[in-house]
Amino acid sequence: MHRSIGIRHPRAVSLYTRELLVDGYKKGIVVTEGLIAHGRGEAFDYLLGEQTTEFAQDAIRTASAALLLANYPVISVNGNSVALCARQIVELSKITDAVVEVNLFHRSKEREIAIEKELRKKGANLVYGVGSAASSTISELQSDRRRVDPQGIYKADTVLVPLEDCDRTEALVKMGKKVIAVDLNPLSRTASAAQITIVDNVVRAIPHMISEAKRLKDTDRGVLSQILQQFSNQQNLSQSLQIIRGGPNGRSTEKQ
Ligand code: PTJ
């Protein structure tokens, strides 16, 4: 952590998180647009009290059950998610037997390689979707996000998409896949298109998913299915929105 922040700084966690993104930018992992996207996320996080709400925790439990139930789960990563929590993404992939695939809105060979390098440094053995491996196409999409790995997202039955940019979630759902999104904005199109949306910061959501996946790993499949059946994404999004609006379960107003 930069010396000027210090662990006693009242906004240390938020400033440290920004530093991770700036470092990611310097390493060629994050794009400038990613820094702006983080600012939007921060604003929602501030309104959520910068903590994992009980509703996010409910979505996290459901998402972990969905990954464990999946036949072929894939964790899709972009620049921001790797800069913020590469090690945790790799750990989650190992616990849930999920493939990790690079899928970028602003795709370039250099970024794909920088992201793959970072994931391998943090323990990934295999990284999908890099270079010519992303040879399949999601025809409905116009952006570079259309390029996917035939052995990864294309084949997946369940895809975890941290920090999504909307169109792809809708396309993946149309392809019959179960989509789990992590998005601090409960009003985004991604949030409403996904079957399970975790309204939380990826820096908290992924570690919580690791704990839940470890806890649920040996649970009977029937019990895991019940967790999924009892979850309503629409209701969960409304509950998160209510917190943002300072409703009955709203956070305390004392903030830095
Ligand atoms: O790395 P690339 O090339 O794939 O580009 C990544 C960005 C983030 C630039 C691209 O996906 C993009 O433009 O995303 P959007 O459309 O700005 O959407 C990002 C969403 O993630 C917004 O709804 C933000 O509120 C949300 N968000 C930002 N930071 C976080 C977050 N959600 C969870 N955790 C965060 N730390």
Largest sheet entry? 5 strands, parallel
Distance between the termini: 20 Å
Q: What top-tier CATH class fits best? A: Alpha Beta
CATH topology: Rossmann fold
Helix % is: 40-55%
Q: How would you describe this structure to a colleague?
A:
The protein is of the alpha/beta class and 256 residues long. It has a single domain, classed as Phosphopantoate/pantothenate synthetase (Rossmann fold). The chain is 50% helix and 10% strand. The chain has ten helices and seven strands. Strands 2-1-5-6-7 form a five-stranded parallel β-sheet, sandwiched between helices. Helix 3 packs antiparallel against helix 10 and helix 4 (79-96) packs parallel to helix 8. The protein is globular, with a radius of gyration of 17 Å. The protein starts with 11 loop residues before the first helix and ends in a 12-residue tail after the last helix. The mean pLDDT is 93. The chain binds ligand PTJ.
Explain briefly what this protein structure is:
The protein has helices at residues 12-26, 32-47, 54-69, 79-96, 109-121, 167-174, 189-193, 202-216, 221-229, 233-244; strands at 73-77, 99-102, 136-137, 147-148, 158-162, 178-182, 196-198.
Task: Detail the topology: elements first, then pairings.
Layout: H1 12-26, H2 32-47, H3 54-69, E1 73-77, H4 79-96, E2 99-102, H5 109-121, E3 136-137, E4 147-148, E5 158-162, H6 167-174, E6 178-182, H7 189-193, E7 196-198, H8 202-216, H9 221-229, H10 233-244
Parallel strand pairs: 1-2, 1-5, 5-6, 6-7
Antiparallel strand pairs: 3-4
